[in-house]
């Protein structure tokens, strides 16, 4: 009996804290074997790269909560990047107009995704995959597949006179001074604020609990009076808006509309959201786990880069870690459930 109880306690600890131990072990490993990994400069770079990935991953988390999935976030972010650059450089609009256009675009894309899934009964993976390809093509049409930069040549032979607003660049490049000369980039502050809001919304509000109820049992949630369609559409709109915010921050950091800069955003964000299932044994989508998953992905990629690992190996390692984390989480959770039932 005593041995059984000890095994049960060990299993519970493994489920709850296994990922945290893995995260700490990964950081410790790279600190020893990747020269410069433990430096403040490396930490700032990790957090800055994590910020954009994490914001997109939080949007994916909202769709996972209601039992859906959004594959269009990467293309929405890239479209936001191109739209903000185009509106300032070519259309010569202000930073406020550029940001507003991107947020509206993200909300509209999310609304269309939601309507396709809820009203037209298109499976979420197919609807968002179709939207992804549509946006990839659409964002290239105004510039004929070229990136957007100050002084670029336009199709009519003229030169674009617009520039990136200093207020817009501030969003991606400014750093707040902290104690001991430590610097905190604005995107990190925005990411932490959004993560806190999503965490509070999903975990401590009636609407968040209803979204979890929809994801667990949509029919039961509908029978008790929940407007399932409205909540699912809202989840995809949140995802679209957060993806557009990620694109805005990326454009503000780069200072140009680079058509290829968002290629890895989808894979990294999805990995962060799914790895979040393993954090603290949640076994379900959650904001805290997604934030920790984004940090994990950031540490992994930064460490591999600093160890001069070939770029073509990074996606393989990332995928292997993702599969291992999910197998670890759900296999141990199933054992825990089996023991409880026994």
From TrEMBL:
Key word Protein biosynthesis present: no
Record key words, sorted: Cell membrane, Membrane, Transmembrane, Transmembrane helix
GO molecular function per UniProt: transmembrane transporter activity
Location within or outside the cell: Cell membrane
Source superkingdom: Bacteria
Membrane topology: Multi-pass membrane protein
Regions crossing the membrane: 14-33, 45-66, 71-89, 95-118, 125-142, 183-202, 233-252, 264-281, 287-304, 316-333
One annotated Gene Ontology cellular component of this protein: plasma membrane
Major place of residence: membrane
Official protein name in the record: Monosaccharide ABC transporter membrane protein, CUT2 family
């Amino acid at each position: 009996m005593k041995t059984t109880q000890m095994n049960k306690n060990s299993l519970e600890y493994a489920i709850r804290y296994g990922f945290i131990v893995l995260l700490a072990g990964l950081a410790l490993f790279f600190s020893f074997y990747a020269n410069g990994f433990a430096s403040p400069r490396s930490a700032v770079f990790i957090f800055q790269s994590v910020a954009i990935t994490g914001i997109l991953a939080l949007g994916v988390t909202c769709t996972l909560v209601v039992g859906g999935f959004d594959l269009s976030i990467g293309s929405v972010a890239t479209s936001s990047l191109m739209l903000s650059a185009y509106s300032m450089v070519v259309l010569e609009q202000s930073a406020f107009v550029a940001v507003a256009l991107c947020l509206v675009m993200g909300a509209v894309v999310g609304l269309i995704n939601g309507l396709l899934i809820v009203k037209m009964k298109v499976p979420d993976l197919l609807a968002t995959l179709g939207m992804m390809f549509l946006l990839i093509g659409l964002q290239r049409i105004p510039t004929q597949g070229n990136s957007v930069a100050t002084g670029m040549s336009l199709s009519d032979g003229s030169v674009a006179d617009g520039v990136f607003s200093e207020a817009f660049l501030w969003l991606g490049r400014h750093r707040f001074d902290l104690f001991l000369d430590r610097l905190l980039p604005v995107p990190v502050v925005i990411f932490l604020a959004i993560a806190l809001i999503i965490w509070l919304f999903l975990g401590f509000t009636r609407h968040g609990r209803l979204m979890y109820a929809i994801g667990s049992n949509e029919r039961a949630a509908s029978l008790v009076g929940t407007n399932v369609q409205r909540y699912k559409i809202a989840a995809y709109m949140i995802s679209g808006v957060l993806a557009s915010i990620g694109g805005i921050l990326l454009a503000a950091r780069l200072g140009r509309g680079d058509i290829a800069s968002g290629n890895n955003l989808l894979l990294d964000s999805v990995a962060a959201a799914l790895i979040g299932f393993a954090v603290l044994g949640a076994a379900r989508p959650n904001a805290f786990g997604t934030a920790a998953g984004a940090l994990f992905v950031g540490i992994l990629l930064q460490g591999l880069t600093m160890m001069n690992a070939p770029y073509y190996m990074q996606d393989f390692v990332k995928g292997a870690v993702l599969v291992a984390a999910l197998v670890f989480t759900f296999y141990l959770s199933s054992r825990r459930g089996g023991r409880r039932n026994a």
